[in-house]
Write a structure and sequence with these properties.
- This protein has 180 residues and is mostly beta strands.
- The chain is 8% helix and 33% strand.
- Strands 1, 3, 5, 6, 8 and 9 form a 6-stranded mixed β-sheet that branches.
- Strand 5 and strand 6 form a beta hairpin.
- The longest helix has 14 residues.
- The N terminus and C terminus are likely disordered.
Length: 180
């Protein structure tokens, strides 16, 4: 019965069209029982899915409570293209413990709540026009043995128009994408 309630809740969230503000919740599905993901936010966000543009840096934040001790965590971000999960282009912040905020470091104890923060962007060389307008994203943190510490799935929108930049390194700074 709890499974049925969860399915009904997820269906209701999928049917409702919430407008996201700068700190509003974003819809997500937890795909691991080894942690409890609190809120998923995308900031700034005026819609769901939030739309990302090439050459703009966003900040992703995930607030979670771990259910077992964590000494190390490896982050994998993947996007689904034609039902095939591929590494998210250009994601290089793979050390979970180095991305914790508030002075928190690993090892984490069971029951501890932490906030993980990392930048995210579409590299300018990404073939934006070839991507679908909405991408399914999987965000996974695993220990050294490959066991999930955290897993969530959400969607992002893709802005198919190339952006220009006044910065010499080609990146516009910073917009915030927060999954909390």
């Amino acid at each position: 019965m709890p499974f049925l309630n969860m399915v009904l809740l997820l269906l209701a969230l999928g049917v409702l069209d919430f407008a996201c503000g700068e700190s509003e919740n974003t819809k997500f599905i937890s795909c691991s029982g080894n942690s409890e993901v609190g809120l998923v936010n995308i900031d700034p966000c005026s819609q769901f899915p939030c739309v990302l543009s090439a050459n703009q840096v966003y900040t992703v934040s995930v607030n979670l409570t771990v259910h077992r001790p964590v000494s190390v965590g490896h982050v994998q971000v993947k996007a689904s293209l034609a039902h095939i999960w591929l590494p998210y282009p250009g994601f290089k912040y793979v050390h979970f413990c180095q991305q914790l905020v508030g002075g928190v470091t690993c090892p984490l104890r069971a029951g501890q709540t932490v906030t993980y923060v990392t930048p995210l962007s579409f590299p300018g060389h990404t073939a934006i026009s070839l991507l679908p307008k909405v991408l399914a994203i999987s965000w996974t943190v695993q220990d050294d043995q490959g066991n999930d510490i955290m897993c969530l799935k959400t969607q992002i929108g893709v802005n198919h128009q190339q952006t220009s930049s006044d910065n010499t390194d080609g990146m516009q700074r910073p917009r915030r994408l927060a999954i909390v």
